[in-house]
From TrEMBL:
Pfam families in the cross-refs: Dus
Biased composition (Polar residues): 34-44
Start and end residues of each DUS-like FMN-binding domain: 52-299
GO cellular component, one term: cytoplasm
Span list, region Disordered: 1-44
Species of origin: Castanea mollissima (Chinese chestnut)
Family matches, as PROSITE patterns: UPF0034
Residue spans of biased composition, Basic and acidic residues class: 24-33
Gene Ontology molecular function, alphabetical: flavin adenine dinucleotide binding; tRNA dihydrouridine synthase activity
Record-given protein name: DUS-like FMN-binding domain-containing protein
Cofactor section: FMN
Keywords of this entry: Flavoprotein, FMN, Oxidoreductase, tRNA processing
PANTHER family: TRNA-DIHYDROURIDINE(20) SYNTHASE [NAD(P)+]-LIKE
Length: 397
């Protein structure tokens, strides 16, 4: 998910969302794919909410700096499994979304990552069985005391902004009452999905009930539901009066939804996504999930392409499937040169002095990394953005 906030830090970014003015339409990049990760001319930004990560899993992770690609990785201890990956470039643009049913555990998870993200979000809207059975997601909607405990615990102990997302309750009045209780905890923004737990994705979102929440609150409200075209952003804002608009499936299927000029071919988006996945060594399960979503929407998983994606076990398999061997070869050779240059500089430093200056080594690695990123973004015509790989839900002001 991407939220568009201001240039300021912390609370200010989300406070800016409450300004009820019409957004200026920024010009997209040439292919319309990378607009979501760059600041607009009016100083505001898109902010990405990552996928929901369960607190039980995240508290078992450790933070590592990945010098090869310039990312910050949270690795499951005892494994090489990357549970969450971000980078300094996205520090003020990514919101970490937690699935939780316990205030202390949620805080422990948030404290691990809070200095690397723009905000921490508690998912209270997921209707999937695995989430509800664990007392998380939409299960929290019937537990206002627990909601209060979780949110106030985070607010008391974090300097990072805290947000949450809910679904509609049985009646609009119930939804408004819950939203007011959430506002009193001091959260920076509230996202409202315009469907109830029992509703199906094909059921139309109830924008009018989101408008009731907007009218009742003073904090920014982010409207979510049925955004599949660029013009839908304006339609939702006009119908709800919300500060911002969130898009999930629409962006997952075709990220060029952010272009005022209209969508580009999903085949072009798919190719760009695969290349970004290669560039950032994206998790194969995450990559396959996004590709399957695209294929299910535009084609069918029962066709040869879908079946091949399902069977793929590595990025190398996807590279071969989509004919990106040349791109992959350039990427690997550039990555190898980066590792070689770092090694050469290290040997040079140790030969000049018994104890090389750590600052010199850090600077050397940073220079090598910059060269690597520059080459990757120029030769391969890609913007170095991890959000481009892991888009999940987006919000536009």
């Amino acid at each position: 998910m991407k939220v568009e906030g201001g240039q300021g830090q912390g609370q200010a970014r989300f406070s800016d969302l409450s300004r009820r003015r019409r957004p200026s339409r920024a010009e997209p990049d040439e292919d319309g794919l990378r607009q979501q990760t760059r600041p607009r001319s009016n100083g505001s930004r898109y902010i990405t909410y990552g996928e929901e990560i369960i607190d039980h899993k995240f508290v078992k992770c450790e933070r590592r700096v990945n010098e090869h690609i310039g990312s910050t990785d949270f690795i499951e201890k005892g494994t090489d499994n990357v549970v969450f990956r971000t980078c300094n470039e996205e520090r003020n643009r990514v919101v970490f979304q937690i699935g939780t049913s316990d205030a202390v555990r949620a805080l422990t998870a948030a404290q691990l990552v809070c200095k690397d993200v723009a905000a921490v979000d508690i998912n209270m809207g997921c209707p999937r069985s695995f989430s509800i059975s664990g007392g998380m997601g939409a299960a929290l909607l019937t537990k206002p005391e627990l909601i209060h405990d979780i949110l106030t615990t985070l607010k008391r102990n974090l300097d990072t902004p805290v947000t949450c997302k809910i679904r509609l309750l049985k009646s609009s009045q119930d939804t408004v009452e819950l939203a007011r209780r959430i506002e009193k905890t001091g959260v920076s923004a509230l996202a409202v999905h315009g469907r109830r737990v029992a509703d199906r994705p094909r059921d139309p979102a109830k924008w009018s009930e989101i408008a009731d929440v907007v009218a009742a609150l003073s904090i920014p409200v982010i409207a979510n539901g049925d955004v599949f075209e660029y013009d839908d952003f304006r339609c939702v804002k006009d119908a709800t009066g919300a500060s911002s608009v969130m898009v999930a499936r629409g962006a997952l299927w075709n990220a060029s939804i952010f272009s005022p000029k209209g969508k580009v071919s999903w085949e072009d988006v798919k190719r760009d996504y695969i290349r970004k996945s290669i560039l950032w060594d994206n998790d194969i399960k995450s990559t396959k999930h996004t590709l399957k979503e695209m294929i299910m929407h535009y084609s069918s998983l029962e066709l040869p392409e879908g079946k091949a994606v399902i069977k793929s076990e590595s990025l190398a398999d996807l590279v071969q499937l989509y004919g990106e061997e040349k791109y992959y070869k350039v990427f690997l050779s550039t990555k190898q040169r980066l590792a070689y240059n770092c090694a050469v500089f290290f040997v040079f430093a140790t030969s000049e002095a018994e104890k090389p200056c750590s600052y010199t080594l850090q600077l050397t690695c940073a220079c090598c990394l910059f060269i690597f990123l520059y080459r990757a973004s120029s030769i391969l015509s890609l913007s170095p953005s991890i959000s481009g790989v892991s888009w999940h839900k987006f919000v536009i002001r």
